[in-house]
Amino acid sequence: MSVTLNPHASAASIMEMPMVEIERLSFWYGAKQALKDVAMSVSKHRITASIGPSGCGKSTLLRCLNRMNDLVDGARMEGTIRIGGTDIYDPALDVTELRKRVGMVFVTTLLLLAIVVLMNLFAIRLRNRLRRTYAMSAV
After folding, report:
1. How far is residue 112's CA from residue 37's CA, in Å, rounded to a whole number?
2. Is the pLDDT of residue 132 over 60?
3. Is residue 41 pLDDT above 80, yes or no?
């Protein structure tokens, strides 16, 4: 995948060219629609956050960018996704090469559980320390 740049374009306009373009993206897992008519673009060198409640389609959208949903039986997509100007659902595209270039980071609940455990241990230590302090002051 490569982006063909206009040789007459200014540096500022090149920096603002969308790296990711999504148009009219809808996605289904069987009969259940997970995404409906999503449209967005992400410029190069920009940080973009996707925030929403559990089950609203954030991970499904990210999986579409890497074509990971191709591996899900009964999954179906409509719309266009371009990365660097290339349609990532073009049949001629090498999906393995796409996945090498489009990295994915997934959140794991194990980290959250570890933080909760550490907070509970800290709370127990603090409670014990406060009990000892009040017991000594009462003497």
Report:
1. 32
2. yes
3. yes
Regarding whether 92 and 122 lie in a shared domain, the answer is no
Mean pLDDT of 23-49: 93
Number of compact structural domains in the chain: 2
Q: Counting Cβ atoms within 10 Å, is residue 37 exposed (0-12), middle (13-18) or buried (19+)?
A: exposed
Which percentage of the chain shows pLDDT scores above 90?
A: 37
The whole domain housing 137 covers: 107-139
Q: Is the pTM of this model over 0.85?
A: no
Same domain for 49 and 13: yes
**Pair 71, 85 in one domain:** yes
